[in-house]
Structures are given as structure tokens and as C-alpha cells.
Queue: 2 jobs
Job 1
Amino acid sequence: MKPVSGSQMKWEIFCRAVDNYGDVGVCWRLACALVAEHGVDVRLWVDDWKTLSRVCPQAVSDGARVAGVELRRWANPFPMEEPADVVIEAFSCDLPKEHERAMAERKRPPIWVNLEYLSAEEWVLGCHGLSSPHPEWPLTKTFLFPGFLEGTGGLILEEGLLYRRDRMLEAQSRADWLRAFTREPLREDALVVSLFGYEPFELAELLHYWEEGERPILLLVPEGRSLAGLERVLGIALPLGEEVRRGALRVVALPFTDQEGFDALLWRCDLNLVRGEDSFVRAQWAARPFVWNIYPQKDGAHFVKLDAFLALYSAGLRTDAANALIAFWRAWNGRGDTVAAWPAFVHALPELENHARSWCAALAGRPSLVTTFWQFVDTSFKKLDKIPPLQNFDGLGNPPD
């Protein structure tokens, strides 16, 4: 069998929408980066087409090809296709059984990878790259973990992203950029904040504190779950594009945007309140102070992940700045008093901004998740080329005699 390599490889990614836009957003970014940086043919299976169409408005029909990625509906019954050379199972979404069987029936099984959720926990280092045999068929699945340290899979960072960020910030002042959202110029000491979260604790109390404060705050809220939650808290409807004023607080509801528009929002704000995984990572590439609203789990299990990242991220900060960061992040997620934690946190923002730039530069110096995937697959195919392909597979997991 002629070896498959480079641009000849066919890849496919399976994704179930669980965390609103986050899971689909990660898979869409990964698919686009694989095409742009390595020229491979990528097929993306998504079970929630409505969510995909918000992240990628060009996803108008099953089979559409956008940015070089073939977009497919993961429907039931599953529309069978020849399995690709590389199969990525995103976040343990469980592949269709008929597709697993078709993978096993190939003379040379595909490289099968499970893309795990992002975590800063120490155990990730020991699990990244581990493999597990299929209980029934001659297939092996390898688990790749994104991460922040050497020895993990890294983060999705598209080639040229940070360069585009810096060029955009140089080309247009924030005052000019804000004219699209605000009726009046901001004071020089105004704080511009983006809100893209779940249901942060004590949001009503914090908004009231901002209203009564002396420092002007402009809160930019993209359309979606965050905006709906904010409307409930304020008790009013927020028309898209319209500004609402309450004391020192100005709120603008932004229309839903694509991923590039969301990145631009994060780049321009003084503070980004983000959530989940995708916007959490993009906030780090923005090199701005941010607060993570982590996806809540039963029995507070998500605080283990939150504290693991905080321990990593706060290293290098002065003690008072680190304490302010940790206190506000934990309060934002339900453990602490958000209003009480705010003054120290906002006082620490200048140091946190410098820290965010240093953190971003350090992360960018490591291999990206796209590079990790590519290197793993390339190495795996070279190993497979030395192994004779299976013959006469009987479909029951039994190798030939």
C-alpha cells in the first residue's frame, strides 16, 4: 500500500455541541487551521447545525465547503462515508458505531485521536499521548490533551494571529473603534469591559456597584446567553446596538459576530469576562486582563480546574495582585463576594495587563495544538508504513490467520 502523507491525508473531526458555542467553536478553529497551515482535506461533522451556522454563517447546507473545510450534518441515522485517514473525536463525543466498524474494516485503520478538554491540572501531563485499544475491533485511540505546559498538546493559535492583532491595534485607535457602539466619547479613565459568560454570581450587585462608582464603565455584551442574563438582572430589554445608561455604567448590546469579530472585541477591551474553553483561550491571545467563568460541574468539581489554572497563571505576580486576581475569579464563580473583591482587583489591573502580555508571549513560544496534532499524525503514519496492512478482516475484530 502506498503511504499516505502530507496534503494527501484526509482528516475528519466529530463534534457534539455541549457548551453552547464552545465545542463547535474549538472544532471549527482546529479544522480551519489544519487546512490553512497544512493543506489537508478536512471534513467536520457537527450534530447541531444551528450552533455551527452562528459560528460559521456560511454553513448554509450539508456538504458545503467553507474555508476549505467540508461541513457535514451528524444526523441519525448516520450518513455513512468512507472513514478518513485521521479521525478526531472531539471531547469524547463517541463516534457512530457504524463508522467505528467501517474504520476497523479498512486495510489500514485510520489514526484515531480523542481531543480532550483543556485543563491545567497536573495529571494531564501524565495522560497526554496515552492510547487505548478498542474493546471489540482492531483500533487504537490516542488521547491528546491541550494544555499550558510543555508536555501537553498546547493551544489553538493560528499562524499570524498575534501579528494581525497588533496591526489592527496600530491601525485604528480604540476611540475610533468605539464610535460604532457609543453615542458619546468615553472619559480617559473609563474602563471598557466585555461580558461573555454563563450566569455569574452576584452580577446584579456588581452592576449596581459600578452604577454608583466614580469611574465610568462601558460594558459590551454580545448577543446570546450573556445578554439574556443581563436583561434579566436589569429588568429591561436591551435592543442590539443601543446604549443604556445607569449612573457611571453604560451598557451596549452587540449583535452576534463571527469568530474574527469576537477576537477583535477582546483585543480592544481593558477587561474581558469570558467563559468555557474557546473564549477563555482567545482572551489569553488578546493579552488583556480577563476573568474566567468556568463551566459549572456537579459538587463544585470545576473549582479544582479553576484553582489549577489560577495557581499556574498567578505565578510571577506580586502577592497582593495575585491575591486580588484569585479572590475575584473565585467570587465570579460563586465562592466569595464579588463586590468586596472588585476594588483590589481593579486596582491590580495595570499589573495584570503587563502579566497578560508576558503570559501570552510565553504561550505563543510553545508548539500550537495544530502543530502537535500534525506532528503526532505524521509520526504515526511513518510507523504504520512499516506495518503490513490487515488482509481479509472478518468485521469481528479478528486478524487474519
Job 2
Amino acid sequence: MTATMNDLRTGRALVTSELFASIVNIVVTHFGQTPERAERQTDQALAFVATAAAATVPVIPSDDVDHALHAFILHTADYSKFC
């Protein structure tokens, strides 16, 4: 039997801290979320985009993740580079 090891990575780890904070700020400001909730939503939105890129079946974000996904898309150059 072969053991496989997976490194646990967060969505937050996929971008710079400055970009993460900027996305969180938009989620707080425009979607009325608390900073803590916005951080969780942003983390999961980044993880969603990374997962969707490799998915072999259609995936759909939850409404909460969708807020942060839209905030990420507003960072057009960073979003394009990420994708």
C-alpha cells in the first residue's frame, strides 16, 4: 500500500496578504459582512477558484463564497493572473 500525503493549503495562502486584505475590505464594505466572516468567505472563494480550475465536473460556489468571488473579480489584473 502506498501512502499519499497532502499538504493542507488555504485559499488565503494562494495570494499576497495585501490582495487578500483588499478583497476582504470589499466584502465588508459592499456586502455588509463582518471582517471575520469576510475573511472566511474570501479564503473559500480563493480555494473555490483554484479547485474549479482543476475540476472535472461543474462546480458552483455558495452564495457566501460568491460575494468574495465577485470582490476578487473586481481586482481584474490580479484575478486574471491568478486564473
